[in-house]
Amino acid sequence: LRYASPGERLVLSVAGNWAQDTALRDPAAFAEGHLPLFVNLSGETDPGPFEEELLDVERLNLAKPNLTRRTSDSLGTSVVFRQPSHVTFGMDIGMGAHTLTANYVLYGGELSLEGTYGSDKGTPKTFRVGKALKYEVRAGLDFRFPDRMRGAAWLLLPVRLLFLDLDGLLFQALGGVTGYADPHYTIGGGLASGTGVVQGVERNVEEDLFRLLDGRVPTSLALARRYTLLERVDVGVTVLGVPDLFFRTAVTYRLP
To answer: HSE of 105 in the Cβ direction (CA atoms, 13 Å)?
Structure first.
């Protein structure tokens, strides 16, 4: 659903997404590798009275400390990727040539990965790691800069350097030839809240994983810019994008 006021000074939207779990299965999945003789993957870094040690120094051959053994471990036969369904409430506010965007996302479900690995006395071990999401808040600002560097536009130079806009400065300096126009600079980010889901992992990493996934966590951060050349070539550059790649460029040509 979308509502736009006259001139699109205010745009309100509501969108929903119903997500399904994705299950992957491979009955023959296994992993092969080589480990030092004294490493016991079934052991613990801080073993209890009836548990084995991860590093068994009694197996170490001092004459040949680099000796390894071949391993073949079961990876488990299935993995389930869970995605939460969600409803997004959006608001865009036009401020002249600039735009403020805000989104509130209400989640139902969790973003997690569940599967099996190895075995414990012949029984496959099950892990489940992720986050039971509650809500997410996103916000962004899109700034429209002047087409030419005149007067007060020079004060915006530090901002353009922050966006690594060296190509834009070059095309703008040659504006009579390149037709440089309509430069926009965007900054945005998101923060999600929920409860960490950590089950079936080793004790020495369980607490750290839960601390990382629990509570509020940043989900996105973006610095991007775009401009037009020769009236039909649109250039977009993502300077910083999390979780996307750094410095991603897109060039689009609009047909007459």
So the answer is: 19
